[in-house]
UniProtKB/TrEMBL annotation, chain A:
<keyword id="KW-1133">Transmembrane helix</keyword>
<feature type="transmembrane region" description="Helical">
    <location>
        <begin position="12"/>
        <end position="32"/>
    </location>
</feature>
<dbReference type="InterPro" id="IPR055348">
    <property type="entry name" value="DctQ"/>
</dbReference>
<keyword id="KW-0472">Membrane</keyword>
<protein>
    <submittedName>
        <fullName>TRAP-type C4-dicarboxylate transport system permease small subunit</fullName>
    </submittedName>
</protein>
<dbReference type="Pfam" id="PF04290">
    <property type="entry name" value="DctQ"/>
</dbReference>
<comment type="similarity">
    <text>Belongs to the TRAP transporter small permease family.</text>
</comment>
<feature type="domain" description="Tripartite ATP-independent periplasmic transporters DctQ component">
    <location>
        <begin position="23"/>
        <end position="153"/>
    </location>
</feature>
<feature type="transmembrane region" description="Helical">
    <location>
        <begin position="128"/>
        <end position="146"/>
    </location>
</feature>
From TrEMBL, chain B:
<keyword id="KW-1003">Cell membrane</keyword>
<keyword id="KW-0812">Transmembrane</keyword>
<feature type="transmembrane region" description="Helical">
    <location>
        <begin position="278"/>
        <end position="300"/>
    </location>
</feature>
<feature type="domain" description="TRAP C4-dicarboxylate transport system permease DctM subunit">
    <location>
        <begin position="13"/>
        <end position="423"/>
    </location>
</feature>
<feature type="transmembrane region" description="Helical">
    <location>
        <begin position="60"/>
        <end position="86"/>
    </location>
</feature>
<feature type="transmembrane region" description="Helical">
    <location>
        <begin position="6"/>
        <end position="39"/>
    </location>
</feature>
<protein>
    <submittedName>
        <fullName>Tripartite ATP-independent transporter DctM subunit</fullName>
    </submittedName>
</protein>
<feature type="transmembrane region" description="Helical">
    <location>
        <begin position="221"/>
        <end position="243"/>
    </location>
</feature>
<feature type="transmembrane region" description="Helical">
    <location>
        <begin position="399"/>
        <end position="420"/>
    </location>
</feature>
Length: 169, 436, 312
């Protein structure tokens, strides 16, 4: 599982970097065609928006790999360490449910419902764009499962509670 | 039971319980909202509603400004711009009593006027000025508090990602919000400068400053010109109608990239890491935006905003009291929630209420942002607070004590901003930006 | 979809993109009230204004899936689902609101089109609501014939057809989202835009563009979409009531629309707007190639001819 995760991390990282780079170029091209060529490209706005959705969804899956999404952790900090493996497993379980029900199931239904609907100005269908949801959902589900198993084994739990922050509370 | 009640209970209980168990905010909101939709229209339909709301919530050209401003900010942190801005701030306020502390405040405001990230500002500026202040005999906790308290001013001074998110949920113009943020943002910094002034008044040892000769001063300011020029290009470009806010953000990226290379602070091989940094920050914000769109849908579908609004209006019919109530609720929310999710969740509820009393949505946006930014410097959840303390190498508790006077001054300023609309509305009106 | 089991009734959710003061909202809430009274409270409609349930394109998907029961959608949105709808969106195809409404009620003309999405999308088009004659308005004017528009940047929706339309009329089509138009007109980024009189005034564009040329190049059209499965589940009696009340709604809407248009014109005139007539024949002639190039199939041409005949 660790090996799979490393490979996925690597691929996802470069996918995000590439998406971001293309996004910057597309919007630059939009400014250039409008301001310099005086002949605004009509496809750039739509293309940039979909690139951005893909970047956000895949980037979000990448952040799940690192458990980097912001959480409110002052309650758990007050719990005893021995409970933390179960609360962490629970957290990952909820992420898994969200990934399965919303990103994968809802995403696939979205792909199905919009598969024949054209994106105006681009040679793709809305359904093809919706594919980002189930794909990032599968990745997110994998990471959630990975961290769930790790947590139950008592490994990789969130950092020991910072003394300074407990005092602050 | 009616739909509003069921959905409301699921949302409130679901989000509260999941948050307390340390489920990431985005998942706590997204999962609870999905369950609430399912409770009203059934699971299968809810799955698509949730997926579609998320997808379309992110699919917006206005939101695209956010990743670009974030990327520009990361480039700036790597590009040696912070140092030049600090030097410029020193020239501007270096002769005031407590010069280093005042420099810190002004540098944060300057940094804020080129970037939208208070956390980055606290780290970049505090990291440089903190050690110098220690050398001159400032109390370490006080100097960290100065840095922390003044950093969020950059979230009001444009460009500001927080204001972009507000413009999205309120359907207001980004350009107008940006312009409206200037004076309140500067007032935020002035409130901090006032506390610094009161603090150093009786401490003669902190009144020393280095004499700067005119040529040195001019040279220092000159070195900061390229950084300041970015404000002219970005904000000026938006106001002149040359760029949309999104386009101006990508111009900021290109500009920072050029500056970074020109200052030899960025190498090509640093770029993937910089882009990845920006991706992570962007994705965290965007997932929140996406799931909040699911929640907004179920709330609208089941009539929750109307129910809350009726409840509030049932308590009192005094606009002043309702505005104060809303401000107090948001101050409490802000203590444990970041500005972005708080805006996404609470603005759709409160905005219709206050507009009924004739509060302008632009003015409301500024007071809400001011309010929620205060939360970034309070425990238990406060990014700027913890990053600022960490940069100074201090424990949070004594820093929080040193923050108290700043906090009081800023809350007072919040109510000034809330009840004197001209502070927010005068500049946009002057520039003719108050379009319908 | 699942059908066969008759449904007793429910409060149907109707999504609308307009605000509470718009003629469409008023006509549709009245529709719900009359329906409720006529079915002894079995069927009712709750109108959600201001796109709170989503933008049109997304809400159509929700109606198709059954999470939302009904929605008002523009012709452009339906064109994306079935290109045949494009003919009704063409400039100059309708001579005016009355012609448009009579065509929308003629099952012989639009019947097959309105049921064309039932099989594939579970969507039935109940009918249409007019969005009025559209005119050009400019910062500098008056505009009387196509050559007066030379070099002027005119805002259009992001639609291939509208871009072609404005270019054919002599201007330089500039796609832009509607919210940015006011400041763009003010800053001189745009020289003009085109819309109906009601939007021209509610968006306060009359403050910055003082010349309205009565080009009447297009009659705007919104459709009422209903989830087909839901319609099938209604008892025949209730469904007949629904259809009858809908026809009354269309009439009421036209009345409201005309009254609001009059009010908008009066208030625009009071604030200094100058309305002028144009060489309509010259504009129609300029637009003829745009119409011609859009009629790519035999079906489209047949539909177009039936519509034109109905005008006589
Ligand atoms: Na800023
Ligand atoms: Na806080």
């Amino acid at each position: 599982m660790n090996a799979i995760k490393s490979v996925l991390d690597f691929l996802l990282r470069w996918l995000c970097i590439a998406l971001f780079a293309v996004l910057v170029l597309v919007v630059c091209w939009q400014v250039f065609t409008r301001q310099v060529l005086q002949d605004p490209a009509t496809w750039t706005t739509t293309a940039a928006q979909y690139l951005f959705v893909w970047l956000a969804l895949f980037g979000s899956a990448y952040v799940f790999a690192d458990r980097g999404h912001i959480a409110v952790d002052f309650m758990v900090r007050l719990l005893k360490i021995s409970h933390k493996r179960y609360t962490e497993a629970f957290v990952q379980f909820i992420i898994l449910l969200f990934a399965v029900f919303v990103l994968i199931w809802g995403g696939l239904r979205g792909v199905d419902l919009t598969w024949t609907q054209q994106v105006s100005g681009l040679p793709v269908s809305v359904g093809a764009m919706y594919l980002a949801l189930p794909i990032s959902g599968v990745l997110t589900a994998f990471y959630a499962l990975f961290h769930l198993v790790e947590a139950l084994r008592g490994r990789g739990l969130p950092d020991e509670f910072d003394e300074e922050i407990r005092e602050a509370i | 039971m009616d739909a509003a009640l069921i959905a409301g209970i699921v949302l409130v209980l679901g989000i509260a319980v999941l948050l307390l168990l340390r489920v990431p905010i985005a998942i706590a909101v997204g999962f609870s909202a999905f369950v609430a939709v399912a409770a009203v229209i059934g699971m299968e339909k809810a799955s698509f509603v949730a997926a579609q709301r998320m997808f379309t919530g992110i699919n917006s050209f206005a939101l695209l400004a956010i990743p670009f401003f974030i990327l520009a900010g990361v480039l700036m942190n790597n590009g040696g711009i912070a140092g030049r801005l600090i030097d410029a701030a020193k020239v501007l306020v270096g002769r005031m009593p407590g010069s280093l502390a005042q420099t810190n405040v002004v540098a944060n405001a300057l940094f804020g006027s080129v970037s939208g990230a208070a956390v980055a500002s606290a780290a970049a500026v505090g990291g440089v000025i903190g050690p110098r202040q220690a050398k001159e005999g400032y109390d370490k906790n006080f100097s960290a508090a100065v840095n922390i308290a003044s950093a969020p001013s950059g979230m009001l001074i444009p460009p500001s990602n927080t204001l972009i998110v507000y413009s999205l949920v309120s359907s207001t113009s980004i350009a107008t919000l940006f312009v409206a943020g200037y004076i309140p943002g500067i007032l935020w910094a002035l409130a901090c400068m006032l506390i610094v002034f009161l603090y150093v008044r009786k401490r003669k040892e902190l009144n020393n400053y280095q004499q700067v000769t005119l040529p040195v001063a001019l040279l220092t300011l000159w070195r900061a010109v390229p950084s300041i020029l970015m404000i002219v290009i970005v904000i000026g470009g938006i106001l002149a109608g040359i760029f949309t806010p999104t386009e101006s953000a990508v111009i900021a990226v290109v500009y920072c990239l050029i500056l970074g290379f020109a200052y030899r602070a960025i190498k090509v091989r640093d770029l993937p890491r910089i882009v990845l940094d920006a991706t992570v920050t962007t994705s965290i914000v965007m997932l929140l935006v996406g799931v909040s769109t699911i929640m907004a849908w179920v709330m609208a579908f089941s009539g929750i905003p109307a129910a809350i609004s009726n409840g509030l209006l049932g308590l009192t019919d005094s606009p002043t009291i309702i505005l104060i109530l809303i401000m107090v609720i948001l101050l409490i929310v802000g203590t444990f929630m970041d500005p972005t999710p708080a805006i996404l969740i609470f603005v759709p509820i409160f905005l219709p209420i206050v507009t009924e009393f004739g509060v302008d949505p632009i003015h409301f946006g500024i007071m809400v942002t001011f309010n929620l930014c205060l939360g970034t410097i309070t425990p238990p959840v406060g990014n700027v607070l913890f990053v600022g303390a960490k940069v100074a190498g201090l424990r949070a508790e004594p820093v929080i004590k040193a923050l108290v006077p700043f906090f009081i001054a800023l809350i007072a300023m919040l109510f000034v901003v809330a009840f004197v609309p001209q502070l927010s509305m005068w500049l946009p009106e002057l520039l003719g930006l108050l379009a319908p | 979809g699942v059908s066969g089991n008759a449904q007793e009734g429910k409060t149907m959710v109707l999504s609308l993109n307009q605000s509470e003061s718009h003629p469409s909202y008023i006509a549709l809430t009245d529709f719900g009230e009359r329906l409720k009274a006529a079915t002894d409270g079995r069927w009712d409609i709750k109108v959600y204004p201001n796109e709170t349930l989503g933008a049109q394109q997304e809400v159509i998907q929700l109606v198709s899936d059954g999470s939302v029961d009904m929605a008002i959608a523009s012709g452009t949105q339906l064109e994306n689902l079935n290109p045949e709808f494009a003919t009704l969106n063409l400039p100059t195809v309708f001579k005016g609101i009355d012609h448009q409404i009579s065509v929308l009620r003629d099952k012989g003309i639009v019947g097959p089109l309105f049921s064309s999405l039932e099989e594939s999308k579970d969507l039935t088009v109940l009918g249409g609501l007019t969005q009025g004659d559209r005119n050009l308005y400019t910062v500098k004017g008056p505009i009387k014939e196509p050559k007066d528009l030379a070099g002027m940047k005119i805002r259009v929706q992001e639609s291939e057809l509208h871009i072609k339309m404005i270019n054919a009329m002599g201007g330089a089509a500039t796609p832009m989202s509607y919210g940015e138009v006011y400041t763009a007109l003010q800053a001189g980024v745009l020289d003009g835009a085109e819309n109906n009189e009601i939007s021209y005034v509610t968006q306060k564009h009359n403050e910055v563009a003082k010349y309205v040329a009565r080009t009447r190049h297009l009659v705007g059209l919104d459709y009422m979409l209903v989830n087909s499965t839901l319609l099938e589940e209604m008892t025949p009696e209730d469904r007949a009531i629904l259809e009858a009340e809908w026809q009354k709604t269309v009439d009421e809407h036209v009345k409201l629309w005309n009254a609001d248009t009059e009010k908008a014109i009066e208030s625009a005139k009071a604030s200094g707007t100058k309305f002028n007539d144009v060489d309509k024949a010259a504009f129609d002639k300029a637009l003829a190639p745009v119409v011609e190039s859009a009629l790519t199939s035999d079906d489209a041409r047949e539909l177009y001819e039936k519509i034109t005949e109905a005008a006589q």
